[in-house]
Amino acid sequence: MSVIRVVSYNIHKGRSATGSRESLSELRLGLYGLRPDLLFLQEVQGRNEQRISLDAQHESLGAALCMHAAYGCNAVRPHTDHGNALLSRFPILQHENQDISDHKLEQRGLLHALVEVQGVSVHCLVVHLGLFAGGRSRQVGALVERIRRLVPEGEPMLIAGDFNDWNNRLAPLFVQQLGLYEVFAVAPHDDFEPRKLRHSVARLRNSLRHPPRPLPLAEKVHELGINGAARLTPPPRTFPAAFPWLRLDRIYQRGFAVRKARVLQGLPWRQISDHAPLFAELELP
């Protein structure tokens, strides 16, 4: 049995939430404290010829955290480029970046790496989908086709990143076609922090005054709970980091038991990037 700590984070090219200053030092310290085993990172600068402190961010983070690093370059500019990265405490056996750009204005890719976790091959895919619904659907189609072609049925798999899917319309594709479950949908119900309990009480008080509107059909996704029961669980709010409202980021898994899942909010996270990171503790039988 292996327990691994997984983090998914859009790091905003190493700049603060407002973009006004560099935040890589705080990012390194924050991630070091989490002791992650797998890091799924988006908006990572692989090259910055104008500011050396922002250059090769996957390499500098990997060196600081003593992790292997794989980088997938997606968006190329005259003096910079950025894309997705996977950092791993376990050996990265192979990796490939697939271009899934839907149009010239948005250069997108998915990074597919095979990681060996104590003798078990785990497929890790880092994604950052487009801003337009039609493009996201086509990009997920390319992702599904790749998985069916290259990932043997039943092998453990993790897909994490910035899905830009604020209305949660893509979730049924992962659940129904790939047998993947979002970690917050299958995490134990009793994994609450004190502040979450306070927020729940506040929401209950508010709901008594103002009954909530029904969730749109697209948000009502049947997902299998850890005890075998189905439940309707929207993904967490992660953007903007200071006041999370939009549900943009996800961690999907297959072949793991989810021990805990949470959004990292407050300091220092709300100052490091415009997204809040996701953290999950998973158990590989």
Q: How many β-strands, per DSSP?
A: 14
Radius of gyration: 18 Å
CATH class: Alpha Beta
Contiguous low-pLDDT stretches (5 residues minimum) are 191-198, 214-231
What structural class should be given to the helix and strand makeup?
Answer: alpha+beta
CATH architectural arrangement = 4-Layer Sandwich
Report the helical percentage.
10-25%
Largest sheet: 6 strands, mixed
User: What is the CATH T-level topology?
Assistant: Deoxyribonuclease I, Chain A
Number of H/I helices: 7
How many structural units, i.e. domains? 1
What value does the average pLDDT take? 86
Strand and helix layout:
Layout: E1 2-10, H1 24-34, E2 38-48, H2 57-65, E3 68-76, E4 80-88, E5 92-99, E6 109-117, E7 120-128, H3 133-150, E8 157-162, H4 171-178, E9 181-182, H5 183-186, H6 194-209, E10 222-224, E11 230-232, E12 249-254, E13 257-263, H7 269-272, E14 278-284
Parallel strand pairs: 1-2, 7-8
Antiparallel strand pairs: 1-14, 2-4, 3-4, 5-6, 6-7, 8-12, 9-12, 10-11, 13-14
Helix pairs in contact: 1-2, 3-4
Description of the molecule:
- The chain is α+β, with helices and mostly antiparallel strands.
- It has a single domain (2-284), classed as Deoxyribonuclease I, Chain A, CATH 3.60.10.10.
- The protein has 7 helices and 14 strands.
- Strand 7 (120-128), helix 3 and strand 8 (157-162) form a beta-alpha-beta unit.
- The protein starts with a strand and ends with a strand.
